[in-house]
Known about the structure:
Blueprint: H1 3-25, H2 40-51, H3 53-71, H4 77-99, H5 106-129, H6 138-162, H7 164-167, H8 169-172
Amino acid sequence: MHAKSMVQVGLLIGIAAVLHIVESWLPLPLPLPGAKLGLANVISLVAIVCFGWRQALYVSVGRVLLGSVAGGVFLGPAFVMSMSGALGSLLVMDYAWNHWRPCLSIVGISVLGAFVHNSLQLVIASQLVSNNGIFWYLPWLTLFALPTGIGTGLCAAVFFERSGSFLDWNKNLEA
């Protein structure tokens, strides 16, 4: 990876980590324990589109590591759930971006990522508590994933629309 690319990915990691931390401070007026808006996933989408899956992986792992250390949950259940959701949604969103893009917009890809993120977190939670009854929570999380995924996708779309110079970062590496 070029030095310029490392700086850019480092910047994305920092932004995503700050969003991850700030989001943990926001109380949601919903009766859904653990539900979050997914603000840091905007940065994961940006990384997928601008740099590809490998650098997006650095961004996702870096943000979960930094956010978990700062939040005091490093290597705890919340860390494991966050990391599994981040990695699973990253892989699915990258696949969708590379294979389904003509049929699926950035908003659709984001909704797909939100659903996968929530689903994987439930799988991990069911393993942690040794109870499959937790999957009754899936319909509610799916309903929550729809507006949050749309919001995250719209934020990413606005970012791409307004930041042409950022999108040229990767192209400028060869120059």
